[in-house]
Amino acid sequence: MFSYPKDYEDSKAQLQLKIDHLKKEGFEITESSHEIAQHLFIDRIVIKAKIKPKNRLVIDSGLHGIEGYLGHACIIVFLDEFLQKISPDTEIVLYHPLNPFGMKYYRRNNENNVDLNRNFSSNQFSSENPGFEKAIAFFKPRKYSGIMRANLSFYFNVIKMISKFGTSTLKEATLLGQKIAKEAIYYSDTKYQSSTIFVLNEIEKNFEDIEQVIWLDLHTGYGPRYQMSIVNSKQEKENNLEFSKHIDYPRVLGLNADDFYDIDGDMIEMIYSMNAKKEKPVSLYATCFEFGTLGESIFKSIQSLKAMLFENSSYFTPQNSRFKAYTRQLIKKQFMPSALEWRTKAYADFKKSLTGILKYKRIIEN
Q1: Residue 22: CB partners within 8 Å, gap ≥ 6?
Q2: Domains and CATH numbers, the chain
Q3: Which residues of the chain register pLDDT less than 70?
Q4: What angle, 0 to 180 degrees and rounded to 10, lies between the N-to-C axes of helices 267-276 and 194-206?
Q5: Predicted pLDDT at 254
Q6: What's residue 366's pLDDT?
């Protein structure tokens, strides 16, 4: 079953203890840290292949900050239950967390309020979000006078906005990424962040001297509450249904308007694009594991939006202590559920999906 570290520092300490233990067991491991902000680091851990490597398995967590708590749990399970099974010609690369500021302060966004999964733009940040521009006032931080009034105000404004613009505009506004309101959610900025630059360099490194790269990006939030989704790139050539059969896992989606949502600046899409530009592309499979938390209904989507907006308002605008505590509770419920039943199912889904992928890609034996 998954268990969370107490905080960002505890996550680093737990992972270090695990790595030190693996070194004593004979694994050749190199470690490095990239400072993003004062005392906040992206840790890079490389577990060397036992023979000349043909495969490179990359696992990253915490691109969306607070989601790194579940990502930490996944990495620990991988090290405890999968590492010994990995083929000797496979090198392991772990990144944790890609957004240390967000993980430490329980935010999805980074130290500049940038959503890093909207920051890997391949078109010089030229994409527009007309839906957000229509409803920009709704998404800006505001001061609330109390929990009840905040909820009443939120639902009133949601109904008003949907009545005026429709649900499609709401979806477009909240998910496409935006570059016009620095203090609003899903802010992409118009330049690469330091974390993004670091990852772009790491992508290039991970393509060097290798035949196959498997890259797993760990997230929480989207999808059914009790079913992890595998969200494949729109550049992945294999059909989702066929891939689902090959790995014996029921929920495989594609990053397109029908299955998921359109995103400018998605990291997995950038990984595929960079590989395609190489003179000799590697065999690549990069995907996102999305652990659903609240659910998929319209009401649950609105609840998710409320948590995001309230948290953002608490960050940028002075609020009373009760409202801040309420907001922290909402955001944790959305991105790191504590319920035993949820954590048990998430653990089972992670093991099943990872086993299926690693067998299919010949990283572990059948």
Answers
A1: 29, 47, 79, 83
A2: 8-123+186-293+337-360 (3.40.630.10), 130-175+299-331 (no CATH)
A3: 255-262, 366
A4: 40
A5: 85
A6: 65
